[in-house]
Amino acid sequence: MSSMESLIGLVNRIQRACTVLGDHGAAHTNAFSSLWESLPSVAVVGGQSSGKSSVLESIVGRDFLPRGSGIVTRRPLVLQLHKIEGEAEDYAEFLHMPKRKITDFALVRKEIQDETDRITGKTKQISPVPIHLSIYSPNVVNLTLIDLPGLTKVAIEGQPESIAQDIENMVRSYIEKPNCIILAISPANQDIATSDAIKIAREVDPSGERTFGVLTKLDLMDKGTNALDVLEGRSYRLQHPWVGIVNRSQADINKNVDMIVARRKEREYFETSPDYGHLANKMGSEYLAKLLSQHLESVIRARIPSITSLINKTIEELESEMDHLGRPIALDAGAQLYTILGLCRAFDRIFKEHLDGGRPGGDRIYNVFDNQLPAALRKLPFDRHLSLQNVKKVVSEADGYQPHLIAPEQGYRRLIEGSLSYFRGPAEASVDAVHIVLKELVRKSIAETQELKRFPTLQAEIAAATVEALERFREESKKATLRLVDMESSYLTVEFFRRLPQEVEKAGNPANPASAAAASNVDRYGEGHFRRIGSNVSSYIGMVSDTLRNTIPKAVVYCQVREAKQSLLNHFYIQIGKKEAKQLSQLLDEDPALMERRQQCAKRLELYKAARDEIDSVSWSL
């Protein structure tokens, strides 16, 4: 087999593989779509009963297409011919019946009909969904041929009125592609000016560079007439020579005349014809197949650089997707544990980026300290607790049956302790608010860890472990912040009390001790005295509030944020280290859809790398 034949065969294999792997039509990526369209193929176009099926069967050398009156081809048939070496038996494979080799071509014909009916029903409806058929034979050339429904002008019973336009649109969708070679089939016993195939081919390929004209039924022309004006390019000139074909007669078809015999009869017809004898070496289905193969060689030769470029681009995309999907997981426990720890580190890195500002979210913790905590402190009901009426009540209750003599120390203590108890609410609220932020950041970090997406079970385990850890951190943080409040209650600042006797003495006249004492006694039980107590307590509570406003965030960050950064998954790591191989495998149990996607991606990658290597090899030999 020549280098170019090998390359044409490779192009066939790439087209088939693209179809098998779902690239063609699925538009997996722009590169895949472009790759398919960059590979040349041959679309067979003609009116109904123009002899399209017979031409295809002549090229293949097998009788395998459905026959009948009216519209027979109702779905595109993508026919890929693969030349095989030696004397191997011909066989066919359908894409929808993978790995089933069919050697009886009568069964091929039946399956084409049955598969058409599965989509269109047993009506005369058409469908753009193609049937993919590969034929392997030592008697064919490497080609991809697309048999399209025959062009028609009117709808018959059971067809929609739009059938003619529907078929034309389907045909155009194939032949408009710049790398599609148009095989325009026209019967010789009709005026070429009325040819449906030539008309539509001229519209999409006005220069005729992509169009090959084929005249069928030369043997059925009226006596005394011939098609030399067409075949020699005088009636309608194309860039490529016209080719005449003599198909099997209906009698031959009814008698199941072998295609090899039919080819011999076709050669004899042209060699002995007084009209076409001088063109005999450029007529017939065998010559047509060689002509198309030679043209494909020239097209592929010209497009090798762009095809190679597209294949390289596709390989890059596939390798990128494989990296995104992740490589297959090893089976031994050590490798699986290593993989799990690597995934945990990837999550932990993203979580820390959220906290440290590399990703959004950490600022919400600062908002708790800068806005929520101060607002909560301002809303504490100190005005009610230190109202004149409540101060009198608390001080009097603290004095008991013996009113205080100088300063109501017990009253002060009770008022201060009662006020300090209000700080417990904001302290706990700050802890809870930061806990909520950390949980949300964990959720976002898990979602943003691309490597984890393929392992839903591990995702759930990490989520559960982090929630458990954050709960522990929250409990420790609550203990620490409430301890700060309790410390303020357990030991009051001495300087505050030392100022009180001086303030009492200032109430009288220092020059007259008697009048000062009298004034002090009067004031000690008056409203002014209780207002000063309330004011003093309020001042002390304000000082404590400022202190707690600074120390509560420190405790929260130390107990929650710092611990989350340093030891969020420590307990999880300990538990993972104790798991058996089977349990580790369960954690790395992937989504079946993702596993299938990776498998398909790996197949594509293998195909395109092999294609690149083979194209490079053939290119060097050209």
TrEMBL record:
Annotated GO MF terms: GTP binding; GTPase activity; microtubule binding
Record localization: Cytoplasm, Cytoskeleton, Phragmoplast
Gene3D superfamilies referenced in this protein's UniProt entry, alphabetically: Dynamin, middle domain, P-loop containing nucleotide triphosphate hydrolases
One BP term from GO: cell division
Primary location group: cytoplasm
Positions in coiled-coil regions: none
Assigned GO CC terms: membrane; microtubule; phragmoplast
Domain GED, chain residue ranges per copy: 530-622
Keywords of this entry: Cell cycle, Cell division, Cytoplasm, Cytoskeleton, GTP-binding, Hydrolase, Microtubule, Motor protein, Nucleotide-binding
Domain of life of the source: Eukaryota
Keyword match Metal-binding: no
Record domain Dynamin-type G: where: 36-305
Known partners and oligomeric status: Forms homodimer and may homooligomerize and heterooligomerize to form the phragmoplastin complex. Binds to PHIP1.
Similarity-based family: Belongs to the TRAFAC class dynamin-like GTPase superfamily. Dynamin/Fzo/YdjA family.
Stated name of the protein: Dynamin-related protein 1E
Taxonomy of the source species: Eukaryota, Viridiplantae, Streptophyta, Embryophyta, Tracheophyta
